[in-house]
Structure formats: structure tokens, C-alpha cells
Amino acid sequence: MKFEKKDILDIESLSRDEIGLILDTADSLKEISSRAIKKVPTLRGKTIVHFFHESSTRTRTSFEIAAKRLSGDTVSISASTSSIVKGETLADTARNLEAMNPDAIILRHKAAGTPHMLARLVKSSVINAGDGMHAHPTQALLDMMTIRERKGRLDGLNIVIAGDIAHSRVARSNIVGFTKMGARVSLVGPPTMIPQGIETLGASASYDIKEAIGDADIIMMLRIQKERQESFLFPSDREYARYFGLTAETLATAKDDVLIMHPGPINRGVEIAPEVADGPYSVILEQVANGVAVRMAILYLLLGGPR
Ligand code: CP
């Protein structure tokens, strides 16, 4: 199957076959990262701009590592060091970047829809590295890769996503991706953090974490996104941890082969106890490792050959 897309903007616009192709490609590229010389010439001569308007550790670093492992040339700019601080608009910034003829622009932005706007303005491939509360497609793809690697499939699995669903682009992209690949998704959290109508994406919602996780093959915990909340949605972190945090005690009701996931950054002792984050069921650092492989696959499929 040929990959015909110009951009990766959200999971909605990827078919089941395209997701399968990205995951298969990531599986085959993963071993490059364990070689003594972690580099192949696939993207030699290609220029990739990383344009991050919001902070990031995992996404930014893994995109840069992915591009370098494929021999692409990388350039990084951030909002605080770009001429956006002098009043330049995103559209003008995009036109100026385009004039330098990059092959791909990887954009993280606090406003939903910004990567979609950029993709309409430039000929380069645009990859959404997270836009506001809307989408984080490469996170969803690395999460699917991690589950497929551990469980052999997504089809038929029960996946619980717990926490601040309302402000989570990871939750939105994962609900769409997991259900597209045949998994059942249940959401759990305080009523103030589960948006009305989220069921239209194909997930069910409930409010008791102990009950919700009993049948789960996967439990994905989410951080409370205080930077996106306009008012307090829970009295205190201590109370949140008590009622919605995943602890060793809460986990006692879960299946023996359950996997614990978290997109990071984690807030230890709030949504997840340290002994769970570092415990035997946790695949949190496997998610991070697979982030490099998935981003290598995306860059390879978008830039590695004629479209
Ligand atoms: N998961 C994720 O997007 O992490 P960063 O914000 O550190 O990139």
C-alpha cells in the first residue's frame, strides 16, 4: 500500500489501513534505535522544521531524534525565540518558513486547528505535534504501537482512559484511534472533567475508577491539565488522588495482565502513585521509546519517496 497523505493532522483523517501501515513501518524501523550506529540515510537532503509554541519534552525530542536517525537536517524554533514575539502572525511566519523550502514542518500550538491552517498555507508536509485540546495524532499512534506490541492486537480490547478527559487532546485522538482499530473505550473521571457529548466519539463514560478498571486490558491515566482550566474542577490534588488516583490498592481490582499507560508528563502522587508508575504493569517508558519509532515511520512515509 502506498501512503498518499501530504500531512498528518489528526487521527480522523487516517484510515484503518493507513494507521496499520504507519504501525507496521514503525515496527520495522524500531531496531535502528538499538544499533551501535543509530543512523540510516533515508532522509538525506530533507529539511525538517520543528516549530513548538508550547513546552514539550517527549514529542519535541523524539521528533528531533527520529529525523536525525533518518539523516534529515533539523531546525528548531520556538515562539519565544521567533519573530512572533515582535507581532508577526502565524500565517506570515509560515510564508517565510515556506520561502526557505523545508520538506516538513512539525507544529505544536496552543490553539486548536492551527496545524490545519498551516497545512493549507504551505506546500511542505505539516505534522500536528499537539494543537490545544484538539488532537495529538502522533501520541495516539505511539500508544497504539505500544498496545499492539504488548497485546498483539487492538481489536476487542477494553481500554479505560482516566482523568481530565475534557482538556486532553491525547484522549480525543486515542478515543478515535482505538475505536477505529476495534477496541472498546471507557472514560472515567470527575463529572467536571468529562465533557458532555463525548460519547458521540464512540466511548462510554463513568465516574468510579475502581468499578471502571475491573474489566480493563489497558488503563491510561491522564494528568490534570491545569494550564487549560479556567476554574478549579476539583477541590485539591489530595482529594483528586484519593478518589481518582491510580494506586496499588485501586489496582488490586484490575486484571493480572493489565497494562498501565500515561502519555506524560506524570504528576506522581496525583493521578498515579509512584509505585504504579514504576511498577511491573507500567509501559510508560515503552511508550516514550515507541514515540521515536512512530515519528521515524511518519517522516519516512511522508518524505521518504514520491507522493
Ligand atoms: N506526551 C507529550 O506530548 O509529552 P510532551 O508534552 O512532553 O511532548
Task: Tell me what the structure shows.
This protein is of the alpha/beta class and 307 residues long. It has two domains: 16-135 and 288-303, Rossmann fold (3-Layer(aba) Sandwich); 137-284, Rossmann fold (3-Layer(aba) Sandwich). Helices cover 36% and strands 15% of the residues. It has eleven helices and nine strands. The chain has helices at residues 16-29, 58-69, 90-99, 114-121, 137-151, 169-180, 209-213, 237-244, 248-251, 274-277, 284-303; strands at 47-52, 73-78, 104-109, 125-131, 158-162, 184-188, 204-206, 218-221, 259-261. The strands form two sheets. It has a five-stranded parallel β-sheet with strand order 7-6-5-8-9. A four-stranded parallel β-sheet has the order 2-1-3-4, with helices on both faces. It is globular. The relative contact order is 0.16. The model has no long low-confidence stretch (mean pLDDT 95). Phosphoric acid mono(formamide)ester binds next to helix 2.
Q: Indicate the percent of residues in helices.
A: 25-40%
Element order: H for helix, E for strand: HEHEHEHEHEHEEHEHHEHH
- Enumerate the spans where pLDDT stays under 50 for 5 or more consecutive residues: none
Bound molecules: phosphoric acid mono(formamide)ester
The assigned structural class equals alpha/beta
Please tell me what the overall shape is: globular
Give the terminus-to-terminus CA distance.
Answer: 12 Å
Please state the CA-atom Rg, rounded to the nearest Å.
Answer: 19 Å
CATH superfamily heading of the largest domain:
Aspartate/ornithine carbamoyltransferase
Q: Give a short account of the largest sheet.
A: 5 strands, parallel
Q: Give the count of helical stretches.
A: 11
Query: Strand order across the biggest sheet?
Result: 7-6-5-8-9
Number of strands: 9
